[in-house]
Each structure stands twice: as C-alpha cells, then as structure tokens.
C-alpha cells in the first residue's frame, strides 16, 4: 500500500526556493500537485528554478516566482499578497531562506550577527505572522521551519548561525502552542551537513578559520558523521512532504534532526 499525501490543490510558499533544500522542496511539493510560490533574491536564479520546476509533470498545478528580500517587512507583505492574489490561499509555508557567516568569534563584527538574525530569525517570524491570518480563517495550516543542527550543538566558528537557529527552535516550540488551537501545525527540521552550494561556502569559511585546506575540512566533517555521508536535499524535501501532509496530523512543535546520526543526545 502506498502512502497517500493528499496535497494536490494546496498552495505553498517556499523561501530560498531557487537552490539547495528550497528548490528540492519546491520540486517535491509540485510533484504532489501543490501550487508553489518560490521566493528568492536573485531574479536570474529564480527564473532558472521556475523553469526546472515547470519541466516536472504536474497535476494542473502552477508555480510562480517571487523576487523578494525577506529582511524587508514590505517584501514579506508582497510575498503573501502575491500568492493570495494568484492562488487564493496559503496552506503551507516552508521557511528556508537564511545564511550566516562562519568565522572566529573575535573576528566577527556585530553585523555578522545582526545580518543572520534579520534574514533568518526575523524573516521566519515575519512570514509566519503574515500567513497565519488566512490559515486561522480557514482553520488549516502547515508550517515547516528549516533550522539547522547548530541550534542544538553550538560550534565556536559558527555562532551567528547557531544563535539564530537556537532562537528559531524556541520560537517554533513556543508559537506551536498558540497556533494549535487554530488547527495550524508548525515544526522544525534541522539538517546536518547537506550537499548544497551553501555548504560549500561554509566549508571554505570554516577551513580558513581552522587554517586547513577545504579538502581536509570536508574529510574531517565526513568522519564525524556516523553514516559517513552528506544529507541530500531531497531527503529533507521528503520529510517536509510528510510533515505538511495529514499523515503527520498530530505532530506539532517538534524538531526533527536529519544529520546522519551526528548529534548526540537523548
């Protein structure tokens, strides 16, 4: 018996949807018949991503590209209003856009922290606040925050990202209690080292901090993963599909780690 996700005719917003985990997630949702609004700051990459999604056989569903900067409050309103104008509702929000600089703590400026908090932490919070009125009205909503393992296990050379992720886990768990009364579910996925362009950039930055080659950094990183391989973006996308489906109807306020067994704990 196959699992029926029953997501066709729903509408999703996916931020950071032009590459990596965001693009993999947008493709997975589209395959399930979901209307998708992909959001990113680079118009050329957005166009390429939209064409890639449109090449996938659909079920009469559509994809639109929204060029927006989620560090700007007015952009948040534009993302939601454009999606509502096109599709009439927002059933699913995938918060995925975010970046933070790796570096030695003493070498990082205030801006490194502020930029990370403004883009990812406040960007996620603003988008949740923008989409839930429609979801409350219809008493149905599914939100997934792509966070990161550094929120649980701090790394001294990635404190802007780690502090952002830790705050997002707190936000996800806290707001889940308020949203549950409206039948809106919100969960977090924390990927470990994932095979994305973003991971390549971080590897270069962290290798520089440790004064080793990028190749040596990557080899050491793989040794620290019990399963011995990187997470693939499609693995995160598959988990997103489950969490936004009714198969996960009783799951909210939860963080799921996808890191090859790297994070210890009980």
From TrEMBL:
A Pfam family it matches: adh_short_C2
Keywords from the named record: Oxidoreductase
InterPro entries: NAD(P)-bd_dom_sf, SDR, SDR_fam
CDD domains: BKR_like_SDR_like (cd05344)
Domain of life: Bacteria
One function term, GO molecular function aspect: oxidoreductase activity
Family stated for the protein in its record: Belongs to the short-chain dehydrogenases/reductases (SDR) family.
PANTHER family, sorted: 3-OXOACYL-(ACYL-CARRIER-PROTEIN) REDUCTASE, NADPH-DEPENDENT REDUCTASE BACG
Protein name: SDR family oxidoreductase
């Amino acid at each position: 018996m196959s699992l029926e996700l029953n997501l066709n005719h729903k509408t999703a917003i996916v931020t950071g949807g032009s590459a990596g985990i965001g693009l993999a997630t947008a493709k997975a949702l589209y395959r399930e018949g979901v209307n998708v609004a992909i959001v990113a700051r680079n118009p050329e990459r957005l166009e390429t991503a939209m064409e890639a999604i449109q090449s996938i056989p659909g079920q009469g569903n559509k994809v639109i590209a929204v060029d927006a900067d989620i560090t700007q409050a007015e952009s948040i309103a534009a993302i939601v209003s454009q999606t509502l104008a096109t599709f009439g509702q927002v059933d699913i929000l995938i918060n995925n856009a975010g970046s933070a600089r790796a570096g030695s703590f003493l070498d990082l400026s205030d801006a490194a922290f502020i930029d990370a908090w403004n883009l990812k932490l406040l960007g996620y919070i603003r988008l949740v606040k923008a989409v839930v009125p429609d979801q409350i009205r219809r008493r149905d909503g599914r939100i997934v925050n792509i966070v990161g393992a550094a929120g649980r296990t701090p790394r001294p050379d990635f404190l802007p990202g780690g502090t952002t992720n830790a705050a997002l886990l707190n936000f996800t768990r806290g707001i889940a209690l308020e949203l549950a009364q409206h039948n809106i579910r919100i969960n977090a996925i924390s990927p470990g080292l994932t095979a994305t362009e973003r991971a390549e950039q971080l590897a270069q930055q962290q290798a520089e901090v440790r004064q080793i080659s990028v190749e040596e950094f990557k080899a050491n990183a793989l040794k620290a993963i019990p399963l011995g391989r990187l997470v693939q973006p499609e693995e995160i996308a598959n988990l997103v599909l489950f969490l936004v489906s009714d198969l996960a109807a009783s799951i909210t306020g939860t963080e799921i780690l996808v890191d090859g067994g790297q994070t210890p704990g009980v």
